[in-house]
């Protein structure tokens, strides 16, 4: 069968294991759009490019294999860059297909011409412009190989229109040997950490990447049980398997002073697929590095290494392979009543998290005090924003729900963050996704009020406060959700919040709960 370039591209993506495309197409991509009729490729329409790239991030976090996106020229890529940034920070693999004018048309400087490579390179580990329709299969396979490595990478393939519509010829792809398994850690580092753990000095192992789940987490739990080493994560993690029956991980606090106190008694920090703790921002007269000066940092497993094998090697070197891991016991949380507070919200969520649920957390203010109280809930996965660019929560929840259609996704998000990518609700309704979006509506960027004080910027005046409050007019979340096909309710007390989450858990499709905070 003779294929054009676009058909060759889609066929290659599918053959290499990329079978979903989050798309926001334009004129230059019409041949690619036609090629998406391939029955082995699922295409999902997103009404904003930041939703497409965020959904691809959520897909990877739950599947550990990349999705593709289709974005329209440089401006379309630019619209998606914030969530590409978040995906890169989370080490999520992604294959971005960026449409481009035909090669002969570029010399006329059409209005949508831009430096796509210049936009893509700062946030992509791999960028290539297709030279001809005959090279597309090779280019696409190379992009998937890059995105599928460990850690995952952002691969961006620029697709000129003429390469899409011209005959592709016989597809030629690079050898599969390009995909290599991640390396194992150096034995010298293993032995050095063995000595640290046998020394009796206070130690903390900080887990990141894929070490926060699966066999790596179990091995870390054994090490903690045998040695007394504390286990922690950075404040934000890509994905954590947590809840009753799993190894619990402490969370390093966000605020600098609290983080310093948390780390104060630690003599050794052992890092696994992450770095030593640093402050999220630079504050006047506060440190960037959060550990004490006499704390020694040991890099046990690097970001590109296999943490499951590495932590297993450490367990063997300690002679504890058969030790039972530290396990979080279940905590039966009663359904709360009364006013909405960070604690009562946590209790409502903890008591309602379904078995094997997925929690996507972008509750920048409320969530800081909430998520630590859900450790003993039913087993679930927790996803955080690694990159800090807000507007990630509802798109990532969309991708996670598509990746795991049999699991309920609960996305908790502040009203300020939700407005960045609220178009996600439309895609959730169109695809019938099992997502409960919980919006904490306090009509302000409350986190920025706290940061105003942290930065020592003085007392904010009326104009400064007007840039932080998001009332006048008040956003009508029920009308917003209803307009995009998502049923919505408003709750004003903790008992109602708990009851509505339970109701949504049992109701197929998307729902929205507005939590009215005063």
Automatic annotation (TrEMBL):
Domain Thiamine pyrophosphate enzyme N-terminal TPP-binding: 3-107
Pfam families from the UniProt entry: TPP_enzyme_C, TPP_enzyme_N
UniProt-listed InterPro entries: THDP-binding, Thiamin_PyroP_enz_TPP-bd_dom, TPP_enz, TPP_enzyme_TPP-bd
Residue ranges, compositional bias (Basic and acidic residues): 177-187
Stretches for region Disordered: 166-187
Signal peptide: none
Keyword flag Transmembrane: no
BP term (GO), one: small molecule metabolic process
SUPFAM superfamilies per record: Thiamin diphosphate-binding fold (THDP-binding)
GO molecular function: acetolactate synthase activity; flavin adenine dinucleotide binding; thiamine pyrophosphate binding
Chain ranges of the Thiamine pyrophosphate enzyme TPP-binding domain: 378-515
Keywords (A to Z) from UniProt: Thiamine pyrophosphate
Family: Belongs to the TPP enzyme family.
Record-given protein name: Acetolactate synthase I/II/III large subunit
Taxonomic source organism: Acetobacter oeni
